[in-house]
Amino acid sequence: MVAVDGLGWWGVPLAIFAGAIRVSTPYLLVSLGECITEKSGRINLGLEGVLIMGAMAGYGTSLATGSAWAGVLAAGLVGALLGLLHGLLCSLRRVNDIAIGISIMLFGTGLAFFLGKPLVQPQAPMLNAIPFGFWSSSPQIQSALQINPLFLIGIVLAVVLHYAFRYTRWGMQLRIVGDSADAALALGLRVLPTRILATVIGGFLAGVGGAFLSLYYPGSWNEGLSSGQGIIAVALVIFARWEPLRCLWASLLFGGAGALGPALQAMGITSGYYLFNAAPYVLTLGILIATGSPSRTLAGAPGELSLVRN
Amino acid sequence: MELTRRFLPLVEAVGIPVMALLVAMLLFAGFVAAVGQSPLEVFVLLYKGAFGSSFSWQNTLLRAAPLILTGLAVAIPAQAGMVIIGGEGALALGALTSAVAASALQGASPHWVQAGMLLSGALCGGVWIGLSGWLRQYRGVNETIGSLLLSYIAIALLNFFVEGPLKDPASLNKPSTAPIGDANMIGNLPGMDVHYGLLFGAIFALVTWVILKFTTVGFALKTVGGNPRAAQMAGLRVNYWIVGAAFAGGSAAGLAGAIEVAAVQGAANASVVAGYGYAGILVAFIARQNPFAVIPVAVLIGGINAAGGMLQRRLDMPDATVLVLQGIIFVVIIASETLNGRLRLIKFKPLSPVSAAISAKT
Amino acid sequence: MSKFDFSIPRRTFLKTIGAATALTAMGPLASRTVLAADKLTVGVIYVGPRGDFGYNQSHAQAAANIKKMPGIKVVEEEKVPETVAVQKVMESMIEQDGAKLIFATSFGYFDPHVLKMAAKYPDVRFAHCGGLWSEGKPKNVGSFFGYIDECEYLSGIVAAHATKSKKLGFIAAKPIPQVLRNINSFTLGAQSIDPSITTHVIFTGDWSMPVKEAEAANGLIDQGCDVLTCHVDGPKVIVETAEKRGVYSCGYHASQAALAPKGYLTGAEWDWTTPYKMLVTATEEGKPMINFLRGGLKEGFVKMSPYGKAVTAKAKAKADGVKAKMLKGDFVIFKGPIKDNAGNTVIQAGVSLGQQDVVLEQMNYLVAGVVGKA
């Protein structure tokens, strides 16, 4: 056990920084996945259920196999399966994607809680982090710079998607399918398979996001694990105006703002903690209000998206 | 032939969901068998728990009461094309405001206190969701994300006030506002163990349905939501309609919060945040945003929740069993909407190829 | 955890009546009631999942123990919110299962839900955990609770021996009297060893917030706290985070020793079986309802986790000495003068508040040395 000196006020920016890295990863992975899905013209509101199902499946698999990465893979596959369900059902005529999403949220949550009952108590092997803070003698900085590979994968993915949407063939195809099914058909693109695939990928990433929660931070499985991260991540995609890089900033912002409350309390500022804890929501709304204007509602929105279609 | 054609919409509206329900039951039976329980036993218990006796029926209706109102909180703005998911927050603020109103009106006759609570709760919920509509029209903030963020903020405000400035020191381990007083509580419907909230919800739903069905309001909302430019050209004040629809929806959720305080809790506290608002999203989408259909759907969900206890107590199955059942039911019901309009083609020969093509297109 | 092993079919009912066809003929309600006629049916209601490795599980453990008593049938419902739902669950247990004694285990169930049902069903007994029964409340209602602050005091003593930074961290859900009493006892225990020790408190705002709890744990450790403890529904995440960061932890509700082999010092645990058995026996024997039931270490309502290997012999000796006094019933935790952390005297010099004093159950302050606001 090490004796640690308190950081004092430096703890607040450090906590926000560290919190941004620790807490943002599920938001990042889920929002990038949803970004792909929404670019194809569908919205999957069920990612909250997918995330929870992924968290449970990942934890259970890690426990059973002894490999946390096997857990991550299992979480992704379970997520992909739920994505496939969403993708297929929404391909039926007249079926509303938002409604199916809400149903899948309920189904995924219920199934995860049902099957996850025996997983609350045992300890599963966790994902390891890369100690980027090795150069520092401060344990706080060392801890803050414990970075999980999934976070790095998320960053790389955001950059790759940013370019892929613009400059690659499949990125263009995805966007055309999402902007106008008629135009896509005219160009000979396969609309439904593209959308189903986009939803499957979105589900996979959301499942992995869930595995991050159960296998790294906070690193446990229980029924209170997700406090709406999945649904917030879907909202962040709209906030980020369907731009992968903006999803990254939005996730970091949200994660960092979430660390503000606990960090201030650790300093001894304990009154009004409910209001500090609401900081991520206030901040996000504030930015939306400040940057929005009546004419820019739909800037960047895929044309076929039911959520924003007017 | 003519008669069957006239009733076809009704056959579809009732027949397809019932069929879907049966399919979902079959899937659930498979799940139940897979975890080692007897499906037959499970279904018998579910039926008994939800609708098997007058006690079960009252249990079901009591649980359905808030869901009717939170369902309307989604269904009404949906008429103007908005997807509102922040009902939970409007409910929380409605509860808080009604408790404040009750303490401001202490001393007045119970009817005045109750009227004040319900009105102020509805007003506050309406303003909160109306704000989502306003932000959408005037600041370009998407109403779905806007209402969600406002919902989290509202719950934080409720907790802050209940544990801070408005806390009754006597509430000790359950921080609450000052009690509204036993005399001011809203009682039960005559001869039933279900409070008046059920009636208020049903009336709200029916009045909304009648207005949308028999006046031009429904059409105006559809136009405003579907094609704002055309609406503007037709002389409709788009912003007013949008904010108004959001306000009306929010007032339903706020009313639900006020009823929770006035008929159940007797004070505002964190217990009112019990997920009714989120369940309302589900209710509205299953009801296809039809205010009338919100009532039976809320009763169905209330029934499943009531029956879930039977499975826990008799078979030692976990609480999540009913979540799985609800998930399966709603996935299947929503997916079954694809059959809408197809029964016509399957069962009844169309009058001409042209009309078949038209009905297939719509 | 065989409770959640679904591979074992639970068809005792089917076996009992022989054939599935009889099920539809008789209906489960009728046959169950007949079967239950000679047994005492006890209902237990939890606010969270009963396998939460925390508060709800501590009650489920007691329910499992009374299930083993002869002539007792237990029916349970978990994750019941503090709304009309809990009223209807109580009524269902009474009407459909014939329950004569109901354990309502969440504080929020008491007012108005338990009180309302107690008035409606005067011949059913309602045992509520944590509430404060007082004269004038229905006679068929009883409130039971454990003086777990005794364990917190002992944990504080052990923590004081372990800390180097003299800063302890406490993560709690809400600043309610039960929680404040635990924080204060923990701090007073630590200050009995070294008066300069401070306790830093973070309130997460709700009973199960794993991400926020992990953030709080990291925040406290970053501020130099080197022993963490908590009062939330499931302490697993906090104990694990402490272990990961290389600081000590004290557990709550149940033993989390297995989660932190290096840093787990000790912990405060419930032993609800004692009050459950007392209440069940009183019902069986037709004795009056025990309206106000409390107990601490001495009565076996609470217990300490076994000491972890990081606890020094000196710390053990000191804590065991105080524990012996508690077991004899002559140790007072809240003995004046005690000041709160705003400088006001909250317990006058010369005033000793014994554990049974209900004034302590209305605590609304944090003692001097606690950094945080009640």
In short, what is this structure?
Chain A has 310 residues and is mainly α. Chain A is built from 13 helices and two strands. Chain C has 374 residues and is of the alpha/beta class.
Quick tags:
heterotrimer; A: 310 residues; mainly alpha; 13 helices; globular; C: 374 residues; alpha/beta; 2 domains; six-stranded parallel β-sheet; 37% helix; 20% strand; disordered N terminus
Please give a structural write-up.
The complex is a heterotrimer of chains A (310), B (362) and C (374). With 310 residues, chain A is mainly α. Chain A has 13 helices and 2 strands. Chain A has helices spanning 11-39, 47-65, 68-90, 97-116, 139-144, 149-167, 169-179, 181-186, 191-215, 229-239, 244-267, 273-277, 279-291, and strands at 130-131, 146-147. The longest helix of chain A is centred in the N-terminal third of the chain and has 29 residues, at 11-39. Chain B folds into 2 domains: 1-37 and 321-362, no CATH class; 66-316, no CATH class. Chain B contains 15 helices and no strands. The radius of gyration of chain B is 22 Å and the shape is globular. By secondary structure, chain C is an alpha/beta fold. Chain C folds into 2 domains: 2-147 and 272-295, Response regulator (Rossmann fold); 149-269 and 308-371, Response regulator (Rossmann fold, 3-Layer(aba) Sandwich), CATH 3.40.50.2300. Chain C is globular, with a radius of gyration of 22 Å. The interface between A and C is large, with 49 and 55 residues.
Layout of helices and strands:
The complex is a heterotrimer of chains A (310), B (362) and C (374).
Chain A: H1 11-39, H2 47-65, H3 68-90, H4 97-116, E1 130-131, H5 139-144, E2 146-147, H6 149-167, H7 169-179, H8 181-186, H9 191-215, H10 229-239, H11 244-267, H12 273-277, H13 279-291
Antiparallel strand pairs in A: 1-2
Helix pairs in contact in A: 1-6, 1-9, 1-10, 1-11, 2-3, 2-4, 2-9, 2-10, 3-4, 3-9, 6-7, 6-11, 7-9, 10-11, 11-13
Chain B: H1 2-34, H2 39-51, H3 54-79, H4 87-104, H5 110-139, H6 143-163, H7 197-214, H8 217-226, H9 228-233, H10 238-265, H11 276-286, H12 294-315, H13 320-335, H14 343-347, H15 353-361
Chain C: H1 12-17, H2 20-26, H3 28-36, E1 40-45, H4 55-67, E2 72-77, H5 84-97, E3 101-104, H6 110-120, E4 125-129, E5 141-146, H7 149-162, E6 167-172, H8 177-191, E7 198-203, H9 210-222, E8 227-231, H10 236-245, E9 248-253, E10 264-270, H11 273-284, E11 292-295, E12 302-304, H12 313-328, E13 334-335, E14 338-339, E15 345-347, E16 352-353, E17 370-371
Parallel strand pairs in C: 1-2, 1-3, 3-4, 4-5, 5-11, 6-7, 6-8, 7-17, 8-9, 9-10
Antiparallel strand pairs in C: 10-12, 13-16, 14-15
Helix pairs in contact in C: 4-11, 5-6, 7-8, 7-12, 9-10
